[in-house]
Design goal:
This protein is an alpha/beta fold. It contains seven helices and seven strands, in the order αααβαβαββαβαββ. It binds S-adenosylmethionine. S-adenosylmethionine binds next to helix 2.
Length: 228
């Protein structure tokens, strides 16, 4: 009998380790293990990222590029920064927009994700790809007309600092577009309540804050930088 209980205890321990490993490495993409692990995982899976996500160009046009152009109208050449660009989804959506003429800086901490973005953006003028961390953006204050950060904040070790950093680099009158994860139960401490995010954005000098339901997992959040 005692052998039976020892085997059961071992089986339960193994199950616990498997579930914990799945949660740490896959469900939360390594965020509780630090930035190096997050980026290492994105480096490993970069080649499969688009296949997993199944992005639809019409969808990204309708919910990202077109509303961005409406928010900055009549500007046709806004200076855009996409933080945590991944395989270049936002730059591609902007470049496909018939009226967009602006330059884009697209930044990510994963070299392999940027390599995939480089392949997809090959031959496109006006896009600068940069390897850098979102926690400390290598750009001056108030530099960009539009700053975006999509489906990424919850994978950052210090998302609060990243939100402040994103606000810092938007120019007065410019727009910030970020996503806020709605299903945060599996990621304690890594997602924001609407009230908390509003406070953070207001503290970062933002106004006209709007939450829009976007996907099952995400809201789109728009905010405008106060003019001086
Ligand atoms: C889920 S992907 C989103 C990519 C893209 N924004 C999109 O919508 O497809 C998250 C991205 O965040 C990047 N990332 C994670 N932590 C980062 C950090 N601290 N600084 C910069 N990029 C980071 C990852 O390398 C990955 O490319």
């Amino acid at each position: 009998m005692s052998d039976f209980f020892a085997a059961l205890a071992l089986a339960l321990l193994a199950l616990l380790i498997i579930v914990l490993g799945w949660w740490l490495l896959f469900a939360t993409e390594g965020v509780y293990l630090g930035r190096r692990v997050v980026i290492w995982l994105y480096d490993i899976f970069a080649g499969r990222y688009d296949g997993i996500k199944h992005f639809q160009p019409e969808h990204d046009h309708m919910f990202l590029a077109q509303p961005i152009m409406q928010h900055v109208a009549p500007l046709r050449a806004p200076y855009v920064l996409d933080v945590a660009t991944g395989t270049g989804r936002l730059p591609l959506a902007m470049l496909r927009h018939a009226h967009f003429e602006g330059p884009i800086v697209a930044l990510d901490a994963s070299r392999r994700m940027l390599d995939m973005a480089t392949q997809k953006l090959e031959g496109q003028a006006g896009v600068l790809l940069l390897q850098a961390a979102a926690e400390s953006l290598p750009v001056p204050d108030g530099e960009f007309d539009v700053v975006t950060c999509l489906e990424a904040l919850e994978f950052m070790g210090r998302p609060t600092d990243v939100v402040r950093e994103l606000c810092r680099v938007v120019c007065p009158g410019g727009w910030l577009l970020i996503t806020n994860r709605r299903t945060g139960r599996l990621m304690p401490g890594k997602t924001f309540s609407e009230a908390r995010l509003r406070d953070l954005l207001t503290g970062g000098g933002m106004t006209a804050i709007k939450f829009e339901m976007w996907q099952v997992d995400y809201d789109l959040v728009w905010a405008k930088k106060r003019t001086l």
